[in-house]
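Bug report (template v2)

What were you trying to do?
Predict the complex of my protein with NAP.

What happened?
Run completed; filing so the output is reviewed.

Input:
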Amino acid sequence: MAKLSFNLEDQVFVVTGGSRGIGLEIARLLLEQAARVVICGRKEEGLETAGRELDGGSRLLAVPTHIGKSDAVDRLFEMTVEKFGALDGLVNNVGMNIATGVVDADPGLWQKIIDTNLNGTYLCARKAGQMMREQKKGKIVSISSIAARRAAPFMGIYGVAKAGIEMMTRVMAQELAPFNIQVNAVAPGMVKTKFSQPFWSNAEIHEQVVKAIPLGRIAEPADVAWPVLFLCSQASDFITGQTLMVDGGASAV
Ligand SMILES: NC(=O)c1ccc[n+]([C@@H]2O[C@H](COP(=O)([O-])OP(=O)(O)OC[C@H]3O[C@@H](n4cnc5c(N)ncnc54)[C@H](OP(=O)(O)O)[C@@H]3O)[C@@H](O)[C@H]2O)c1
């Protein structure tokens, strides 16, 4: 058996939503492991800031992309192959939430949340799966959430979308296993990013959240990025169709 290594030299990874938060940290770790990385986000300004912070030189490409739009997703992967000539991994990191339940939600709001979280992940994963199938090797990792398994008041549609991502992970893992492609997900609890800032920056909510986490703190982006790196590396070559809970033990109690 080959010597185990997290080194990803010359491998090419697309990280959606890599301009800030968890995605930025994932891009940083992949670059540290010598991979070539493509990040995307909707706003050019965010991508420029991330580009300066990551300082990846010729191993980094930023492509403004709305992942809910099929044409834009096709272009993202075309530009990846144009620049780097291959695709070894995809991290489906984009996610957004608008606080809502389901029963009283307007259908337009339902569509918007499903479009970005579930349809966007599907559009990227299907494209990557088709490309990786040709080369008989690849890694697809999606970011789910504890909201996929726990019905929470302000995360109704978001939770439905994330549950869909976990099922899609299992379905795609089955479809792509014959091509040596591993498809997995990680499901974080609360992480200190802009996404959840209204919650963790509120002292009262912060205290309540921490009380429910056995490890006694709210996650930092790196706490999620490390398990993602594991799932992008050869260390996880015999793991597929799984969702790894990254929640400080919250779901274990
Ligand atoms: N933070 C948490 O507490 C937490 C907990 C559980 C799971 N998660 C999941 O972790 C993932 C990352 O979250 P985060 O906290 O890092 O979020 P974040 O700080 O809000 O970052 C989101 C990233 O996605 C990009 N993005 C948003 N909508 C997009 C779209 N339609 N097309 C392309 N890019 C888009 C953003 O850039 P632009 O704004 O420029 O598009 C940004 O780069 C998400 O899937 C989220 O659901 C987060």
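What did the reviewer find?
The chain has a mean pLDDT of 96. The chain has one domain: 12-252.
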